[in-house]
Every structure is written in structure tokens, then in C-alpha cells.
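Lab notebook, bench 4. Still working through the backlog of constructs that have no structural model yet. Next entry is a single chain of 146 residues. Request: give me the C-alpha cells for it.
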Amino acid sequence: MSELDDTDLALIAELRRDGRAGWSDLADRLGLARATVRARLERLQARGEVVGFTVLTRSDVGAMPVRALMMVALEGRGQEKITARLTGLPEVSAVHSTNGRWDMIAEIGTRTLEELDQLILKVRNLDGVLASETNLLLSTRRAGRR
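Model written out:
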């Protein structure tokens, strides 16, 4: 598989900025022919470089305005059990395994700081959780978006 060239990267950046952009709009923004944009995107999808498109709704950013990342250290081999417990919590949108000091990172969202505090306590009290550190997300800028 070859590396992505500047045109591929520019196309991906434009799609990150506006995943609903039409072929003509993308072609205009990139200074390419419409057929070239279409062929490039089809090739990126076929190679697995672009694996899907998503939508961000108002409720994704509004329903849980207090957002945070919680790094979790585990004792022993309970990662599968802890992951299952975390993914079962409605405030947890994703759980990532990682390396380094922390064993996993949970993306969390609550309506209030009080709810966040309760969630942190709940996670820290799970059997197998050795330590945690939670960082509030103050703002988010997506890659390739203006």
C-alpha cells in the first residue's frame, strides 16, 4: 500500500470539514476535476484509508455538555471486565485500551459537574480499578475543520 499524497490528504481534510460536500464542491475547493475527486475517494475507500462517514448531531454536543477523558489504571488482568462495566454506563461513549501509565481511557459526558463527580466515584469504586485521573474537555477542534 502506498503512502497518501498531498492531494489525498487535502481531500480527507475537506471531508473532515464537511463530510456532506458534493463531488463538485470538493473539486472546486481542491482545484481538481470532479471525476478525479470521485476516483480518489473511491480508491481511498477501497484501500481502507477512508472507512466511513459520520454525522455529528446537536444532541451529541448538547445533551452531555460536561465532557472529560478519564485515564484508568488497573490491577491484575481485569481489563475485559472493567471495559464491559464502563461501556455499560450511559455516560461513557467510548473506552480505549492504551499503553504507558494508564491501561485505558474512557470518553465520558454528563449533564453537570455533580454528575461527573458521581461517575468518577463510581468508576474508582469498581473492583480492579487501581487509580484514575480525569481531565475536563474545555473545547474541541476537529482535525481539518475551520
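Notes after review: Helices lie at 6-17, 23-30, 34-46, 58-62, 79-87, 113-124. The mean pLDDT is 88. Flag for follow-up if needed.
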